[in-house]
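Hey all, sorry for the wall of text incoming. These are the two entities for the joint prediction.
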Amino acid sequence: MSLATYALTVNGKAHSIKVDSGTPLLWVLREELGLTGTKYGCGVAACGACTVDLGGVPTRSCVVPMSLVGDREVTTIEAMANDAVGRIVQDAWVATDVVQCGYCQSGQIMTAVALLKRLPHPDDRAIEQGMGANLCRCGTYVRIRLAVKAAAQQLQRGRTP
Amino acid sequence: MTRRIADVLVVFVLSATAVQAAASRAEGLAAWQQVYSVLTHPRCINCHTASDHPDQGDDRHRHAFNVVRGPANQGVPGLTCATCHQRANASTGIPGGPGWKLAPLSMRWQETDGRILSSGQVCRSVTNRATNGHLDGAALLEHHSQAPLVRWSFAPGRLPSGALLTVPPLTHDGFVAATRTWVEAGTPCP
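and here's what came out:
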């Protein structure tokens, strides 16, 4: 146990967090900051439910200890409504009626946003490769793919649905 | 008589030089075999694949989670190496190092079916400046001495289970010393 104080910027807001250096970022977000939109799924980076944006990279927050976060800014699902691409993706998710139980969907959306920011017009293969490590036990993969394509079309048109 | 002695001396010196050169090449080849034993250890060769994905584990199975190589050897948009691998080994059991990525396909050290290339094939690949990033012997030595991901393979940390990841058969110092001997011998290949 080695408690340390970390300066952490989440969704544009600065925080000072005193936790054990090995505490995963996920638990700081959920337990210290109350940002429970990011979910705990597997705890070993295998399912993607905990995905957040860390310094511009979609990242599995369950396996990143605070000691390795550094000065990178964190963006979570709670900020997606105010993100240009995030808003479009969330609207496409609703319009396509993607969600069944919903538990994995914040991670799915965070990954979809990261994918579309790097690759605005992904084909099926790019969607499968980029989203393929985000698991959904309800099996909503077909609708996820449709929603990513719908969001890409909206991005191309430059407006929300 | 004097001339005959001089001729004998010349032959002796030339023979001694030839023996020294041959020994140097032999030492170089022996050192290369040590280098090869490291390069083909899973900590190294798992990211020197001939496929569109990295391998993992001592049994060199395909990397889990549908991870793929991508155009820059660092994954694809949405799922990059950095999605999980940070700049250092994580206490959570995920290995990491600066610039975590696959080696380019030009530096593959295995066949597409996973069979490891022979010592001579890997040696010729490593020394081919047209495909190795234009590294000469000195640069190869520098790479083996200083490259963060090379150094990582000798201190790969623990798995999520807490078990230590296995390490190559030489220490990093031993690996650098073997590379130096091989380079000083002119990077001979079997």
